Amino acid sequence: MADPRPRQMPWLTPYLTVRNADKTLVFYQKALGFKTMGAMREKGKVQHASMSYKGKCVVMFAPEGAFGGTDKAPKTLKISAPEMFYLYVDDVDAAHQQAVKAGAKSLSKPADQFWGDRFAQVSDIDGYKWGFAKKLAKRPPKK
After folding, report:
1. Where do you find CATH 3.30.720.110 in the chain?
2. Which pTM was predicted?
3. Strand 15-18 to strand 56-63: parallel, antiparallel, or no bridges (unpaired)?
4. Region of residue 5 (phi > 0: left; psi between -120 and 50: alpha; otherwise: beta)
5. Which of 34, 37, 91, 108 lies 20 to 30 Å from 98, alpha-carbon distance?
6. Which class is 12-65 in CATH?
C-alpha cells in the first residue's frame, strides 16, 4: 500500500487555532525558527499554514473562524493551554532568548532538569506553550 501522507509530513501533526494566521506565521518564523511549508490565502489572509522545523512538518494552523469553525485560541478564551509542545533545539538558552525577543512570554528560564534535559518554556502570541529542550551529557546530581 502506498504511503497516504504528503512528503515531509509525520503521522501526527498538531493543528492549532490561532487568532491571526498571518501574525502567527511571522511569529513562528522569528521566535521558533520554523520555515513555511505552505500557506493558503483567501481574500489576502492566511487561512491555513503548515510549518517545518529541521526539514519536517511540526505544526499546521488556521485562524479563528476558518472553514466555518468555532474554535478559539487559548488567548481569546483567556485560558492556559493544557498542552505543551516539546521542541528539541541545539541551544535552549538561545531559543528561549529568541522567542522572548520575538514576543513570547517566558514561563520558565533555561535550567538543567532532573530528567536529563536542559529546558525552558514560553507561551506564544496565541497562548500555546512551547518547551525548548536539549539532552544533557549527564543528568544533574539528585538533590
Report:
1. 80-143
2. 0.92
3. parallel
4. beta
5. 37
6. alpha beta
Q: Which residues contact 107 (CB under 8 A, 6 or more apart)?
A: 121, 122, 123, 129
Range list of β-strands (E), 35-142: 35-42, 45-53, 56-63, 84-88, 105-112, 117-123, 129-135
Please name the amino acid found at residue 91: D
Rounded to 10 deg, the angle between the 21-32 and 92-101 helix axes is 140
H-only helix segments in the chain: 21-32, 74-77, 92-101
Query: What percent of the chain has pLDDT above 90?
Result: 86
What topology does CATH give the domain 80-143? Answer: 3.30.720
CA-angle at 37, arms to 36 and 38, nearest 5°: 95
CATH 3.30.720.120 residue window(s) in the chain: 12-65
| H/E segment holding residue 43 | none
Q: Buried b / exposed e across 15-43, counting CB within 10 Å, b at 16+?
A: ebbbbbbbebbbbbeebbbbeebebeeee
Band of residue 23 on the pLDDT scale cut at 50, 70, 90 = very high
User: Tens digit of pLDDT for each residue in 78-91?
Assistant: 999 999 999 999 99
